[in-house]
Design goal:
The protein has 212 residues and is α/β, with parallel strands linked by helices. The protein has one domain: Uracil-DNA Glycosylase, subunit E. Helices cover 33% and strands 12% of the residues. It is built from 6 helices and 6 strands. Strands 1-3-2-4-6-5 form a 6-stranded mixed sheet, sandwiched between helices.
C-alpha cells in the first residue's frame, strides 16, 4: 500500500535484484527491501533512511560516487562493491518468514557465485549474517568451526574471504544510538583494510576454500 508522500510514484512492487559493480571484491548483504524504499524504487537500499546511511558510508569509504540513492536513474555508481539482500521482496511488517528466506536463498547463492573476485562480505545485522552463512554453505563453501558469532565490527576469515559484521542501519538502531555513523565508518574501514591485505603479494591468489 502506498503512503501519501509517494502517491505520485509507480511502485516497482516486484523482487528487487542486487546492485553494483560486477567485478566487486566487497559484497554487502542486507535483510530485505523496505516497503517504501527498494519495493518502491526497484533498487536495493534506495529511497529509504537505511539506504541514506549505507550510501553515505559507502561514499565516505570510496565505494560510491555519490552519497545519496533516490531512484534507479539517479547516476549512482558503485566501485568494487555490490549490494544484495537475503530476501528480495518487501515482507509484511518487515519480518520475512522462513519460507521467504528459503525461496530467495538460491538468488543470493547465485550472486555470490557470480562475484568471482569476492574478498570481503559485510553483513548488516545478525539475521542477514545467519542467512548469508546458509547461502555460503549451500554454495559449497566451508563455514569455520566454531561458527562465526555476530558482533559489531567483528571479523572472521571464511577461507580467503573476510566476513565483517555490522548492526543494520535501521531507523530503530540509528535513532537509539546502537549504530552511529562513526561505528558504520569503522566497518567499512575494516573492509577496505581487508581488501588492501588481499592485494598484498603474500595474499594474492589465495583461493576460497570449498568443501570436497
Amino acid at each position: 500500500m502506498k503512503v501519501a508522500r509517494f502517491m505520485d510514484w509507480t511502485y516497482w512492487g516486484r523482487p528487487v535484484p542486487g546492485f553494483g559493480d560486477p567485478e566487486a571484491r566487497m559484497l554487502v548483504v542486507g535483510l530485505a527491501p523496505a516497503a517504501h524504499g527498494g519495493n518502491r524504487t526497484g533498487r536495493v537500499f534506495t529511497g529509504d533512511r537505511s539506504g541514506d546511511w549505507l550510501f553515505r558510508a559507502l561514499h565516505r569509504a570510496g565505494f560510491a560516487n555519490q552519497a545519496t540513492s533516490r531512484s534507479r536513474d539517479d547516476g549512482l555508481r558503485l566501485t568494487d562493491a555490490y549490494i544484495a539482500a537475503a530476501v528480495r521482496c518487501a515482507p509484511p511488517a518487515n519480518r520475512p518468514t522462513p519460507a521467504e528466506f528459503a525461496r530467495c536463498r538460491p538468488y543470493l547463492e547465485a550472486e555470490i557465485a557470480l562475484l568471482r573476485n569476492l574478498r570481503v562480505v559485510v553483513v548488516l545485522g545478525q539475521v542477514a549474517m545467519d542467512h548469508f552463512l546458509r547461502a555460503w554453505a549451500h554454495g559449497g563453501h566451508t563455514i569455520p568451526r566454531p561458527r562465526p558469532v555476530f558482533g559489531p565490527a567483528r571479523t572472521c576469515d571464511l577461507g580467503g574471504v573476510t566476513l565483517v559484521a555490522s548492526y543494520h542501519p535501521s531507523q530503530r538502531n540509528t535513532q537509539t544510538g546502537l549504530l552511529t555513523e562513526a561505528m558504520f565508518d569503522r566497518v567499512f574501514r575494516l573492509a577496505k583494510r581487508s581488501l588492501e591485505d588481499a592485494n598484498s603479494p603474500r595474499a594474492a591468489g589465495t583461493p576460497t576454500k570449498r568443501r570436497t
